[in-house]
What does this fold into?
Amino acid sequence: IDIKTIEIRLDPGSATADPASNVFKDISYLPLQTTKESLFQEISQLEITAKRYIIWDQSINCLVIFDKSGKFISKISNKNNSVDTPFKQIDHFSIDEVKGEILINDDYSNFFYLYSFDGKFLSKQMRPGYWGLFYIRQQNFSAFTAGYNFDYVKSLKKSPHNIVVERSTGQIDFYLPFDTAIARYDELWSSDQGFFNNHNGTVNLAINYNYNIYTIDQTGNLWNSYRFVLPALSAIPDDFLTNRFFKPTRSEYLNINKEVVYGITDIYYHDEKLAFQLLSRASKKNFLYDLKTGDLKSLTDLILDKSTAKLPMLGKRILALDEKGRLVSQVSAPTLFDFRSLLSSNKNWMKDVPAALEKFFKSNSQQNPVLTFLNTN
It folds into this structure.
């Protein structure tokens, strides 16, 4: 596809730290029902459907499903006796909104496990041989990070690539070649998530050790949508992945040069706004870039203000973009209760607390994380 890549000159150090109300038009909170069965610690991955929030907590090896009001629906674990050979270890999951299916990648088998959006087991299927770490299924295509199963890829008469797109027509396309003679997969750091759903039929992704953002469109075509140009002190050398000199020392280089950005993740686009996180050994910071004005804001350094009664609204990551174009994050219950302890000395503070948190604060800190919705429109 002949689409021009948008080059963005980006200086993370120049990002402004604005009051939250100047960055977000609206901020809302959604407590998730806490029961003995639904209790979890942290959201490792969040996928959003028309009626469900589907959450993976890596620490408990389970998926927990809630409806849009935060009511607990179901829990998917490997303790289900109705499954003959249950999965052993969840390694990310994907959803098929057309078929209403959850696809769980089992780290210790060659299968993925299919469940309904209500948590009912449906079947298990053999994974494609080119399956790598991450996977996403859309209406017209499925996309994989690939390259680990070199023998399988060679059997297709293909060299190793980073991305495989399997279209609904059966056509399989390989994108972004990877030269195993110059760099090994086991020396390159990965991110927490590989594909980022814009909820408009398109998917964003990035490959660590370069500053390109790629988009897969509704038909399965991949193109280079954005390219970041960073200041020299923040950027890896241009030949970091191609120069054999770096092959045995890439991790060492980044451990020494801790401010150097080695990856881009949590990439979401909506209404001329681009949200993303820059990864370095020193920090993992979230940003919001206005494609019209060139304005760069640090979401990690937001100034808490009256719009949320000075309560935090952003966890470590942006977890998703919902169907309304809102960025979605999480705040842990202990964190919110710690802030309450600090702020409640002001007798008028509770008057400003978002209504959704009033009942939440009447309980204790042993509750599920709270979802936050950040409207940039």
Notes: The chain has five helices and 25 strands. Residues 193 and 318 are 11 Å apart (CA to CA). The mean pLDDT is 90. The longest strand covers residues 261-270.
